[in-house]
Write a structure and sequence with these properties.
heterotrimer, A alpha+beta (372), B mainly alpha (328), C alpha+beta (152), B: 328 residues, mainly alpha, 10 helices, C: 152 residues, alpha+beta, 2 domains, three-stranded antiparallel β-sheet, two-stranded antiparallel sheet
């Protein structure tokens, strides 16, 4: 990393990175004030893919809003659906059978791995390496096939239901997931040799994009970004929901605060997810997947309900304010990348554009979720 | 007189033909190679194994509209793609493919190739400056500093070879290495024990000089969109593209001639043009292999590599070779 | 100084390891399909657009209760029905008969709420996925017509 240079505010020019730019992976616009190749300031401009998801939540019944959640973060749609059904179940006090809980955890963790694999490929592609993306997508294909056979869809699953899941898993799912675990472990080893230990990658990521713990707290950053800055916060551990306190897994935390730490956190999270999947497969009981008694039309009593889950990109929170009607009175979504992106401006000042875009990749942006 | 004229014409046509054919089919090789490295078959639709892809691509590029954006420096904008292709073709004139197949042998062949090679960075500068695009300008500035940083160790390495051979004639350099592979400059350990390192330095510099991954900072697509040719369309883009591949062929030819014994066989049998072609295509395969394996470096990583590692090593090798030549 | 050399050596080694991995992949069998020439079998539970299910006599199972219409988040289903009198075991009964069932696929988000809400086993998912068109009208499906075409 070069020494910090003195940037001059009177000699800058504006560079629009986006709305269409190969590095933003979507319609995000970052208005950068540049001094040569150095960034003086970067303003994130949102609104190019705004779809009023929160307002839609007020106009649709609880069940009708379910498919919307998968459209926020299309890469880890399962976790978002999970958060929403948990919130509604909390509000309407619906019991969930144990088998359904296990299936939920299994699908969410599989989805987390597939989401991290896409991030891994896209991140290395941001850095200019194209081949790891193809390997990652090959392994992700195995997950998508497993999930497609169960849910009927490859990306926007809409699989979790209030009280349980849409349909039961079969033996193919169990066998397929069992076969997937060793395959993924082998693939992770390959990624480590091919990418993680690569000197070019290390040179590009180590010490680049420092995000301090204070900065994370200031902007509300969560997930791997915060965990790479030494904040040991994972909703699955700190506020256990579903069955997560029954599983034995570690939360990877790094104190280096740089892009390489964020990279390592995600790579280790994939391993931890595999551990959770292994345990869930071993423990999964037989039984129903939907509760016997479930209200036909969900009308939670008036009140204010909040549920947070750990999505692939950080803590996803959903707040439902109910007035007792069929629709929510107010539905607030707290999406992780929206908060994570806000520290970009402060963190990228004085960085070279190449490093800044690598740093942007390490935050792991999904634009439709940031700009919902 | 008329015979020499015909000879010259024939040589020029052959050089252009070889360059164009290589440029076109190397794109196919690159795409096939990329596919195979990524466990997919690559282009398959046009012709058997997609072999008709290059002519189809060529027709597509030629029939597209050449868009000249408003406010560009028209002269520079138009001249840059030509300038990218021209030095590459000119360099072919002096490259000996075997002992007798050479368009025009010169006793300063090495010098001429490097003179033309440095014109390549001018094409990048013109394109970036003329395009009136911030990305293109950044990319061209990068390209020039990269070219300067990598010409230094490259030339120092070439000076080492020239000292060993005592000639700047490419044919003489290749003939000097005739015999088995133990005679090649890459293994000329008696002349300087650092020759393999020198070969690596030269190879890395070739990668950087031809703007190939992992040193393709000029057209870093995830940062600078398409770099210096962001604003080019149609054959303007096509010429840049072909120039890049022609430069790769030149780079491999030079590496083969300087280090790998030119057209000589590894075991001293049947020297000829086929060995030369085999060697350059193996080198080109390595180019493709490297491109589809590694992520891109940054501009300071690239300059650090050049000034802190390659230049000290090549200078040390130069001194060592000079000393050994003096002693023995 | 020792760090300088050790970094060069370990860095060079990492590059060689990376290249050996990609070379191994070079000779492995390909994993992709040549899409228009080869296709994959769709999963059993694949959620395509919806189709009506017929009974033994070729009529739709649908009783036009309108549950699917109400369950649909994006309002893409519209159906009409008329009452007809039929004789069952000597008595005349009123029965609703489906006269049209339109699916506006342009707004459908393939969530499957309609199939889930159906109590009469009247709609199912199609396995069709090649649904690209440049005309909006191609996505207004008349499911009743499609059912008849399937039968004929």
């Amino acid at each position: 990393m070069s020494d910090p240079i003195q940037l001059r505010s009177d000699e800058t020019f504006t560079l629009n990175v986006g709305p269409q730019h190969p590095a933003t992976h979507g319609v995000l616009r970052v208005k950068m004030e540049m001094d040569g190749e150095y960034i003086f300031s970067a303003e994130t401009v949102l609104g190019y893919i705004h779809r009023m998801h929160e307002k839609m939540g007020e106009n649709r019944t609880y069940a009708q809003y379910l498919p919307n959640l998968g459209r926020l973060d299309y890469l880890s749609a399962m976790a978002y659906n999970h958060g929403y059904v948990l919130a509604v179940e909390k509000a309407a006090s619906i019991e969930v059978p144990e088998r359904a809980e296990y299936i939920r955890v299994l699908t969410v963790e599989l989805n987390r791995i597939s989401s991290h694999l896409v991030w891994f490929g896209a991140f290395i592609m941001d850095l200019g390496g194209f081949t790891p993306l193809m390997y990652a997508f090959d392994d992700r294909e195995a997950i998508l096939d497993i999930l497609e056979a169960v849910t009927g869809s490859r990306l926007t699953y809409c699989y979790h239901r209030f009280g349980g899941v849409y349909n039961d898993v079969d033996d193919d799912f169990i066998e397929g997931t069992k076969a997937f675990i060793p395959r993924m472990r082998k693939a992770l080893k390959t990624y480590e040799d091919l990418v993680t230990k690569n000197i070019i990658l290390m040179k590009r990521l180590k010490g680049i994009g420092p995000v301090s713990a204070e900065m994370c707290r200031k902007y509300g950053a969560t997930g791997p970004v915060a965990r790479a800055s030494g904040i040991n916060f994972d909703v699955r551990k700190n506020e256990p929901y579903s069955l997560y306190n029954e599983f034995d897994f570690d939360v990877p935390v790094y104190n280096e605060c740089d892009s390489y730490a964020r990279y390592m956190v995600r790579m280790e999270e994939m391993e931890q997810s595999l551990r959770i999947i292994e345990q869930a497969l071993a423990k999964m009981p037989e039984g129903p997947i939907m509760p016997k008694k479930k209200p036909k039309i969900i009308k939670p009593p008036a009140g204010d309900y909040y549920q947070a889950v750990e999505a692939a990109r950080g803590s996803f929170g959903i707040r439902i304010v109910s007035d007792g009607g069929k629709n929510a009175y107010r539905l607030k979504l707290r999406s992780p990348t929206y908060s994570n992106m806000h520290l970009f401006d402060e963190a990228c000042r004085g960085m070279l554009i190449a490093d800044a875009l690598a740093f942007m990749g390490s935050i792991d942006l999904v634009i439709p979720e940031m700009d919902r | 007189m008329s015979l020499t004229l015909i000879n010259v014409l024939f040589a020029v046509v052959a050089a252009i033909g070889f360059a164009a054919l290589n440029a076109a089919y190397l794109v196919w090789c690159e795409r096939k190679g990329a596919g195979f490295f990524q466990r997919r078959p690559g282009p398959m639709e046009n012709g058997p194994w997609g072999l008709l892809q290059p002519p189809v691509d060529g027709i597509k590029l030629m029939t597209k509209q050449l868009v000249i954006p408003g406010g560009v420096d028209k002269a520079l904008f138009m001249v840059a793609p030509v300038l990218a292709m021209f030095p590459a073709i000119m360099s072919f004139v002096t490259i000996p493919f075997s002992e007798n197949i050479v368009a025009q042998n010169m006793n300063i062949g090495v010098l001429m190739i490097f003179a033309f090679a440095s014109m390549g960075s001018m094409a990048i500068l013109f394109a970036g400056w003329g395009s009136r695009n911030k990305y293109a300008l950044m990319s061209s500035v990068r390209g020039v500093s990269q070219a300067i940083a990598y010409e230094v160790p490259m030339l120092i390495t070439v000076i080492t070879i020239v000292m060993i051979t005592g000639s700047m004639d490419l044919r003489a350099i290749a003939l000097d290495q005739s015999g088995g592979f133990w005679q090649w400059n890459i293994l000329a350990l008696t002349k300087s024990p650092l020759m393999p390192v020198s070969f690596l330095i030269f190879f890395v510099c070739t990668l950087a000089e031809t703007n190939r991954a992992p040193f393709d900072l000029g057209e870093a697509e995830s940062e600078l969109v398409a770099g210096f040719h962001t604003e080019y369309s149609s054959m303007g883009f096509g010429l840049f593209f072909m120039g890049e591949y022609a430069n790769i062929v030149i780079g491999s030819c030079l590496t083969t001639l300087l280090f790998l014994g030119g057209w000589g066989c590894p075991f001293g049998l049947f020297p000829g043009v086929w060995w030369f072609l085999l060697k350059i295509y193996l080198l080109i395969f390595t180019f493709i292999w490297i491109r589809w394996t590694f992520p891109r470096t940054t501009i300071y990583g690239l300059l650090n590599l050049s000034w802190k590692i390659l230049i000290p090593f090549s200078l040390f090798n130069l001194l060592l070779t000079a000393g050994l030549l003096k002693v023995f | 100084m020792s760090g300088y050399f050790s970094e060069i050596i370990s860095g060079g080694k990492s590059l060689v390891v990376g290249m050996s991995i990609t070379l191994k992949e070079f000779f492995k069998p390909k994993v992709t399909l040549q899409y228009p020439h080869q296709t994959v079998k769709m999963a059993e539970r694949f959620r395509g657009h919806i189709e009506l299910i017929e009974n033994e006599s070729g009529e739709p199972n649908c009783v036009a209760c309108g549950m699917c219409q109400r369950a649909c988040p994006s309002g893409c289903i519209s159906l009409t029905s008329k009452s007809v009198e039929i004789e069952v075991e000597g008595k005349t009964k009123k029965k609703k008969v489906l006269t049209s069932y339109d699916l506006n696929f342009t707004t459908c988000s393939l969530c499957g709420s309609c199939v889930e809400s159906c109590n009469f086993d009247a709609i199912c998912y199609s396995k069709e996925y090649n649904l690209a068109s440049t005309r909006k009208e191609d996505f207004h499906f008349d499911l009743l017509k499609r059912l008849k075409e399937r039968n004929s």
